[in-house]
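Module 6 notes. Inverse folding takes a fixed backbone as the condition and produces residue identities as the prediction. Think of it as a translation problem where the source language is geometry and the target language is the twenty amino acids. Below is one complete input and output pair. Work through it position by position during the lab.
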């Protein structure tokens, strides 16, 4: 229930729809009860003694309300029949009943109409909040969590909240009020009979709560398992080329099938328990109706303390409680099941982002002097990938990082851009710790071309102008030319308006990388970080793009992470890394003269 309350906090912007829904639900409950009460006069006309004439009763207070109501109803009906005839009176009463049912259904429609805006508005805001959280959380969060589980929370869990928790909103006022109004009318008709109903409600509630006790726990298992098989699906689609190449289709099919079978078992367990709600409540209701018929028959035929028409009206009111009672029992199951989904949603929304702006963080708009990396050490989990690393990168200079895979080169790029936060040491821009600079302004100072060329399922133009959405067509064209991308773009079916497919799947590796470079060129930042920027290019494209990169870096501060040493010979400083530490640094010629690790790396590569 606590999670339900927290989810309902999203309903605040839509409270006017909630008020309107409550208003029309009150009308619905009132007209629902009146529609059955209105049948009593019809029954009296059809089955009553037409010759009997009643005198107008005198109201003597609440204690005699029931007797007064019966006597007054008898008096009015006998008077109307005497004046208009019984058939005409019957037609009038039928018209009244039809009008009440019309008002009841109109009220129901408007109650549903307004709750729709509230439900869909809450779902929209929950999804937006979850997506915002997904984008805000650091990269480290996704290295520890399954992507499929996060996708499941945004899709399946939100859908579960819609089907369970938010569906309860439709009946949270209507069904209890229908029961309340019916019970009041029944209490007025017969206090003795109504006592049976009051006995039934707590017994039914106890049985239903016992059955649904473990529903939340089982529901969480369902949602978690859905996250597992969505993760398998996401991995399969991303790595389909490798799966096929290694003939691993069978292994992945078994992995998915096992997860899907567990989901099948958990779902069956949850739904079978939930399905008990309706028959259980209906059985309890029919048992009570049977008892009421026996005892009510005694009051009508033997005790003669109740009129047959009132008894029939009473039974219809009692039956009128069954439908909302069944709905409430099903809703109690839905609450338990939806609580599990709400818990997972709130778990994501309440996840603390360890990388956030300091309270007094400044928005830095320019880069003037240098980037200073001062004695930093860093580990992703247990082992350090960087140890006591220090370097100064002056404005306008190019610093290259080289070394074996796993030496910590890409980690430097992740730390400068603050994709990960430092715990030991400092990184400063113009003497200001990057933790004191807003993340938005820090990222505005930098352009990144990553080792994996990340493209989105959109047009070529939209992929290039990602960092500058208001770029003109001329600016996009110029950036494409600098990145040596224009030659292949103009050959595409729709040029810059061609969709590149999912993850740029319609393009070659070299083409995707050149679009990534064009994106960084268009952003035109003062600091450029190139993480293996030419790794996906063929020899011819590499030379053309390398020349473009040299032109682009001419007036910029650049951090170049390189595997191909031919691309960084002109760097102002080359830092050779090994197991997270600096082993050599200097220019290309200086490092060759040292005849050390850099020379060994050069000798292993052939230059053209």
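Target side of the pair, the amino acids:
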């Amino acid at each position: 229930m606590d999670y339900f309350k927290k989810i309902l906090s999203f309903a605040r912007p839509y409270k006017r729809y909630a008020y309107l829904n409550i208003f029309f639900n009150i009308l619905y409950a009132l007209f629902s009860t009146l529609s059955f009460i209105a049948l009593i006069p019809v029954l009296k006309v059809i089955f009553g003694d037409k010759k009997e004439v009643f005198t107008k009763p005198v109201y003597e207070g609440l204690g005699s309300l029931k007797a007064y109501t019966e006597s007054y109803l008898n008096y009015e009906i006998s008077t109307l029949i005497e004046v208009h005839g019984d058939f005409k009176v019957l037609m009038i009463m039928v018209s009244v009943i039809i009008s009440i049912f019309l008002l009841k259904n109109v009220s129901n429609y408007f109650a549903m109409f307004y709750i729709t805006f509230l439900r869909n508005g809450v779902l929209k805001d929950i999804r937006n909040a979850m997506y915002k959280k997904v984008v805000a959380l650091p990269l480290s969060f996704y290295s520890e969590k399954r992507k499929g589980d996060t996708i499941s929370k945004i899709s399946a869990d939100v859908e579960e909240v819609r089907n369970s928790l938010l569906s309860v909103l439709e009946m949270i006022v209507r069904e209890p009020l229908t029961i309340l109004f019916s019970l009041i009318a029944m209490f007025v008709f017969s206090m003795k009979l109504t006592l049976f109903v009051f006995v039934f409600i707590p017994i039914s509630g106890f049985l239903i709560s016992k059955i649904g006790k473990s529903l939340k726990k089982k529901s969480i298992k369902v949602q978690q398992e859905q996250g597992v098989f969505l993760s398998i699906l996401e991995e399969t689609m991303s790595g389909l080329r490798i799966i096929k190449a290694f003939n691993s289709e069978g292994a992945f099919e078994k992995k998915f099938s096992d997860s899907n079978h567990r989901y099948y078992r958990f779902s069956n367990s949850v739904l079978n328990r939930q399905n008990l709600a309706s028959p259980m409540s209906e059985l309890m209701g029919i048992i009570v109706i049977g008892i009421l018929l026996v005892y009510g028959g005694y009051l009508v035929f033997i005790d003669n303390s109740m009129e047959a028409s009132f008894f029939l009206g009473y039974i219809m009111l009692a039956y009128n409680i069954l439908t909302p009672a069944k709905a409430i029992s099903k809703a109690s199951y839905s609450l338990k099941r939806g609580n599990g989904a709400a818990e997972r949603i709130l778990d994501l929304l309440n996840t603390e982002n360890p990388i956030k702006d300091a309270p007094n963080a400044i928005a830095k708009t320019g880069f003037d002097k240098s980037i200073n990396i001062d004695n930093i050490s860093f580990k992703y989990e247990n082992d350090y990938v960087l140890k006591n690393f220090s370097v100064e990168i002056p404005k306008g200079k190019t610093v290259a990082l080289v070394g074996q895979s796993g030496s910590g080169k890409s980690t430097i790029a992740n730390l400068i851009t603050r994709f990960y936060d430092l715990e030991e040491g400092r990184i400063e821009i113009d003497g200001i710790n990057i933790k004191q600079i807003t993340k938005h302004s820090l990222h505005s100072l930098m352009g990144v071309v990553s080792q994996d060329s990340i493209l989105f399922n959109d047009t070529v133009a939209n992929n290039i102008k990602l960092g500058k959405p208001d770029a003109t067509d001329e600016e996009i064209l110029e950036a494409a030319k600098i990145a040596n991308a224009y030659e292949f773009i103009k050959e595409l079916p729709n040029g810059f308006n061609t969709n590149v497919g999912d993850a740029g799947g319609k393009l070659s590796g070299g083409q995707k990388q050149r679009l990534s470079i064009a994106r960084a060129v268009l952003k035109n930042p003062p600091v450029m970080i190139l993480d293996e920027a030419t790794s996906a290019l063929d020899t011819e494209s590499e030379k053309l793009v390398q020349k473009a990169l040299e032109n682009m870096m001419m007036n910029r501060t650049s951090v170049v992470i390189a595997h191909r040493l031919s691309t960084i010979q002109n760097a102002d400083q080359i830092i050779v890394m090994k197991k997270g530490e600096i082993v050599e640094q200097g220019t290309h010629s200086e490092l060759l003269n040292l005849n050390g690790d850099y020379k060994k790396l050069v000798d292993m590569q052939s230059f053209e």
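Reference fact for the lab report: DSSP finds 24 helices and ten strands in the chain.
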